[in-house]
């Protein structure tokens, strides 16, 4: 029987409260209230708790652990993902994969770990006045988080799905490399996206959150952060408080709980954090809140191979190519990063276009299908302003992300690049995931077909697993919601410490960027709140 | 409130407006229709739509096929139930619309009740929405595509066709 660190922690006496089970409205008090338990919330929680601060974490989703992770999409998507892994942008044209559970997206991501590219940091320094964001200043924080989360080169040979990306790239003379992963004792099974069943993935669920709970933090789960209520001396409120309600559907959903704190850390993800500030009617004198939200809009190309690929088996995403990022200026036409994602029955079936006999025929090729994806680097060009987080009538957030010709120009080049690599790797047929695309039998045919493809929202299948921005940091309040320390420009007792900070997309899978940047900022915040020397490392 | 939601943000609100006259009918039918639970509408619609979306994928044996379709309907309902309220309302609106005969006839071309609908007519409806210039109809097609195909391939009995043995044992 495998160990279950969460069950063990609960048995040790962790303070975990299920908001849905509270029979009446409660009042809590803490030094710091952290909203969200993903990459930003997890790192903040460990640092602030270990600095001696009393911390309460608020998580919208449930606390699940390895014994719940049964490697079935039917279990995992409704339990662990926002909107059952079917979260959509406002016009339904982009499907967003985002975690909603303790550990957030780190519980369900595919373990790809990259440092923030220097070209991205240089852009932030120049355009956002973030002079402190140099590679040398961040290096110790990357090193600390890499050590903490066992981020290292993956020594096992890639599965066939990933090997085909390197094979095709090699034949074309395109540089490629291995992806570093945050795993310890990985079984190389391939089900990272459904919660790691062996606790090998060093997500927040098994690292920083347990450390914070062991050090005395309190975790409130199934709890939605409704709004921040400001201090009001006349009303006898010396500090602000967070209003919390149990998840919708709970029999206690009508109750309101209050968490008073000296400081609030928003780490609810790049849709949740701006939405909480919008619901709280936070001052936004320069209309920047919720704007410039980025997705790395992602397009997919499938290839039928003669030999089995079994893309469901083995570590997902172990090979990448940045050729189409590195050969374009960062503020030029959209570049893209190439990776090879895992395939599972539901994600495959819903991604493949069409239905009936034609779709069934594609499904029969499940084990012979190799898939690549291209993550488009958004937010660096004037024609790439990203999207905007808005609120529905019921206060729930929705992201409006218009797909423009600028994006579609990148989409077309990405389809072409993937098809060329796939044919070079020996594909019999290549099928860009688009309603109108043909099943191309040669690179020449694909080049012509993709060149003529009508690229429009909805018929072009676009997905995203990387939501970033919406509370951009900038030294200039006209350009950012928060400053370079993550502090809200107008509300001094609020910090944003998650991927919402990023003023552009990262241009790489963002988890390690969040870990390192938040570690640095949370360390400084701990020092400020305690008056002691900042924790040097995690 | 419900009606306002439907006009403003409903998955199919704009489609109804685009259909012109259908709106008047909708307004009159809506309250009379309110007693019928949305779950029943899902069963009715999927009875006709799921076999067309899953043609070539379902078992040939009649009993197995019927069990498969029941599993798909149950799976779709589970997914909808797990959606947050605002999204669930949109999906409910889609099935509500597909349930009203005259609206269905205008927007899908299927006049018969779903139970009696000709598969060729259902196919024509799916094609009409799939390629529609009206984004809301097209997104309605994608919603049906993802709900039904997702529910079927989530079911272990579909995996044999894929040559997929399921997840490995981890103990």
List keywords for this structure.
heterodimer; A: 538 residues; alpha/beta; FAD/NAD(P)-binding domain; six-stranded antiparallel β-sheet; 15 helices; 24 strands; 19% strand; B: 171 residues; mainly alpha; 10 helices; 71% helix; 0% strand
Outline the secondary-structure elements.
The complex is a heterodimer of chains A (538) and B (171).
Chain A: H1 5-12, E1 15-18, E2 27-35, H2 39-50, E3 55-58, H3 73-80, E4 87-88, E5 94-96, H4 105-108, E6 112-113, H5 118-128, H6 135-148, E7 151-153, H7 160-172, E8 177-178, E9 180-182, H8 208-214, E10 218-221, E11 223-229, E12 241-246, E13 257-266, H9 269-279, E14 293-294, E15 298-304, E16 319-321, H10 323-326, E17 336-339, H11 345-351, H12 356-364, E18 369-376, E19 388-391, E20 397-400, H13 405-424, E21 429-432, H14 443-452, E22 462-464, E23 468-469, E24 494-496, H15 511-530
Parallel strand pairs in A: 1-10, 2-3, 2-13, 3-10, 5-22, 13-24
Antiparallel strand pairs in A: 4-5, 6-9, 7-9, 8-16, 11-12, 12-13, 14-23, 15-18, 15-21, 16-17, 17-18, 19-20
Helix pairs in contact in A: 2-8, 2-15, 6-15, 7-13, 13-14
Chain B: H1 2-9, H2 13-18, H3 22-33, H4 38-53, H5 62-82, H6 85-99, H7 101-108, H8 119-130, H9 135-153, H10 159-162
Helix pairs in contact in B: 4-5, 4-6, 4-8, 4-9, 5-9, 8-9
